[in-house]
């Protein structure tokens, strides 16, 4: 086989940047093409009027893996991406008024409606759970994910641990915890997957185990610091990074990839191509499905999109106090599928993050950044929302926040809305799609307080072919 000297990469998110960095470190000539006008993909950030918003990822879990990637790239993670630990992790309010708080490590407390606070039983049961699952977590993060996927290695290293991975998250939480409030709070922590815990494979408990052992972190300056460090490193090693470059096709000849066809740049020949566009785009548009690996195409066609939510991001004039980083009002575990049901008049189960709690510098002094995820009707096209619908969703979010915080002195300085389709239930198809849109200021500086919305939205960044493609993915009906 001829040596690979030149590689073309589709996509400038973390995967593309990290792959490019590793290859350029080995002396390969790398050209990376990003459809957007900036790098970072789902891990980018955008700053508007002094407020820094996430374009997707909200925190760093398992920082040891980030360290590993940086080591492989010959970079000091500590120097380029200093991390700050999230010490007030999660506050969960339940339908009966019980409040569960997760702080740092095993700092867990349950406050009952009568004011009684309990901690010991939950902490003891959590310790037992960690003892059971920590070896599985370490098998994955210290070994399996650091090597190329191999069934032989998996069986050899994992035969003791793999049997634990049978069953659902809910069944495991039922066994481990006597208190339904703790079960509800823990299953709420993984609701972002879009699937209630009765349908979630128990493997997702590893996210919870990582949360209680390694903790969660934010990079100083925001999530965008990670792609910034990776792109500086790639560019510093001579890698070519091209923005606003929509890859339309992976060019095949005689059954082998020969290059990529980039809008405005023509055919770029390369010895190998890497697509980090989501699997649906790669196997549906970039490759002719007739020529793509049949098994991959089948998986993409069968993949189910799990639930829809819209990200509403607010830059507030004031500091939101009494919160954790992640906050939610949820039903008990077996009713948590209600969280995904959109209602026109109310957000029954608000879910939101307060990034300035950890990183006050993400807002101007005294301000805060909140990111809420109200569910959206599965059949409604969010892309076609008009100003009234835009205003409605903001009103719903601000009213739900007002129920939990004293917002009388809050003023929304700016907001963004994005459409999110969360993870496919088929884990081998990483098809998370995030679209960012309107960024705006209120009509006047003295203007709207929480709950009083007069909005004028505008598109922030130019629509691209990629977005049109993604919107087709977004509106893909869920197979029955
Ligand atoms: C809402 C949300 C919250 C998340 N929260 C977390 C979290 O808290 N913690 C965590 O660890 N992870 C989180 N994730 C996951 C994490 O962000 C992603 O796994 C990671 O950023 C994916 O990186 P990637 O490079 O694989 O893909 P992406 O970030 O999607 O990058 C792909 C890039 O390819 C570009 N592209 C696509 N098609 C083309 C084309 N045809 N031509 C050129 N360019 C193209 C895209 O514009 C994009 O920049 C979250 C994701 C989302 C969406």
If you had to describe this structure to a student in words, what would you say it looks like?
With 480 residues, the chain is α+β, with helices and mostly antiparallel strands. It has three domains: 6-58 and 221-303 and 429-448 and 457-467, FAD/NAD(P)-binding domain, CATH 3.50.50; 90-214, no CATH class; 305-424, no CATH class. It has helices at residues 14-25, 63-72, 77-80, 120-143, 151-158, 169-176, 180-189, 205-213, 225-236, 279-286, 294-302, 387-404, 465-474; strands spanning 6-10, 29-33, 45-48, 51-54, 60-61, 83-85, 90-94, 99-102, 108-111, 117-118, 216-219, 240-242, 247-253, 256-262, 266-269, 272-275, 308-316, 326-330, 351-354, 368-372, 412-421, 433-440. The strands form five sheets. The chain has a ten-stranded mixed beta sheet with strand order 10-9-8-7-18-19-20-17-21-22, with helices on both faces. It has a four-stranded parallel beta sheet with strand order 12-2-1-16, covered by helices on one side. Helix 1 (14-25) links the parallel strand 1 (6-10) and strand 2 (29-33). Helix 6 runs antiparallel to helix 7. The radius of gyration is 23 Å and the shape is globular. The two termini are 45 Å apart. Flavin-adenine dinucleotide (FAD) is lined by residues 10-16, 33-36, 41-43, 56-59, 61, 246-247, 276-277, 281, 420, 432, 434, 466.
**Uncertain stretches:** 421-480
Q: Compute the gyration radius: what is it?
A: 23 Å
Report the average pLDDT across residues: 83
Please list the strands of the largest sheet in the order they lie side by side. Answer: 10-9-8-7-18-19-20-17-21-22
CATH architecture of the largest domain: 3-Layer(bba) Sandwich
- Strand count, sense and closure of the main sheet? 10 strands, mixed
CATH H-level superfamily of the largest domain: FAD/NAD(P)-binding domain
Name the structural class.
Answer: alpha+beta
Shape: globular
> N- to C-terminal separation?
45 Å
Q: Strand share of the residues?
A: 15-25%
């Amino acid at each position: 086989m001829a040596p690979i000297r030149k590689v073309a990469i589709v996509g400038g998110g973390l995967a593309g940047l990290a792959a490019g960095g590793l290859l350029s470190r080995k002396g390969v000539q790398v050209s990376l093409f990003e459809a957007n006008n900036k790098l970072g993909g789902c891990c980018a950030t955008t700053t508007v009027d002094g407020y820094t918003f996430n374009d997707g990822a909200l925190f760093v879990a398992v920082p040891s893996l980030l360290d590993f990637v940086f080591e492989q790239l010959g970079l000091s993670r500590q120097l380029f991406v200093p991390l700050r630990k999230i010490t007030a992790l999660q506050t969960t309010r339940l339908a009966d008024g019980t409040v569960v708080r997760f702080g740092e490590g095993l700092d867990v407390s349950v406050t009952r409606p009568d004011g009684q606070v309990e901690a010991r039983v939950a902490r003891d049961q959590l310790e037992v759970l960690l003892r059971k699952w920590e070896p599985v977590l370490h098998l994955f993060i210290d070994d399996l994910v650091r090597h190329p996927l191999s069934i032989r290695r998996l069986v050899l290293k994992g035969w003791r641990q793999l049997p634990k991975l049978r069953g659902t998250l809910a069944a495991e939480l039922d066994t481990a915890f006597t208190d339904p409030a703790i079960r509800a709070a823990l299953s709420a922590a993984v609701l972002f997957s879009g699937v209630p815990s009765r349908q979630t494979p128990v493997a997702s408990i590893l996210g919870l185990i990582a949360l209680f052992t390694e903790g969660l972190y934010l990079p100083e300056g925001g999530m965008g610091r990670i792609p910034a460090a990776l792109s500086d490193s790639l560019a510093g090693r001579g890698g070519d990074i091209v923005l606003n470059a929509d890859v339309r096709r992976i060019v095949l000849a005689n059954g082998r990839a020969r290059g990529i066809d980039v809008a405005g740049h023509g055919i770029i020949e390369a010895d190998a191509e890497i697509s980090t566009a989501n699997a649906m785009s790669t196997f549906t548009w970039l490759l002719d499905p007739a020529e793509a690996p049949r098994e991959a195409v089948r998986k993409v066609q069968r993949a189910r999109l799990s639930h829809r939510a819209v990200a509403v991001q607010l830059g507030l004039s004031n500091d939101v106090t009494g919160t954790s980083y992640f906050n939610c009002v949820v039903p008990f575990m077996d009713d948590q599928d209600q969280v995904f049901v959109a209602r026109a008049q109310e957000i029954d189960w608000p879910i939101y993050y307060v990034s300035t709690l950890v990183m006050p510098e993400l807002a101007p002094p005294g301000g805060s950044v909140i990111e809420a995820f109200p569910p959206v009707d599965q059949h409604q096209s969010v892309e076609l929302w008009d100003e009234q619908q835009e205003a409605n969703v903001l009103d719903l979010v601000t009213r739900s926040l007002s129920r939990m915080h004293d917002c009388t002195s809050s003023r929304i300085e700016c907001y963004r809305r994005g459409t999110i389709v969360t993870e496919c239930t088929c884990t081998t198809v990483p098809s998370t799609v995030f679209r960012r849109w309107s960024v705006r200021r209120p009509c006047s500086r003295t203007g709207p307080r929480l709950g009083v919305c007069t909005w004028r939205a505008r598109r922030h960044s130019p629509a691209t072919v990629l977005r049109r493609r993604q919107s087709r993915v977004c509106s893909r009906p869920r197979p029955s």
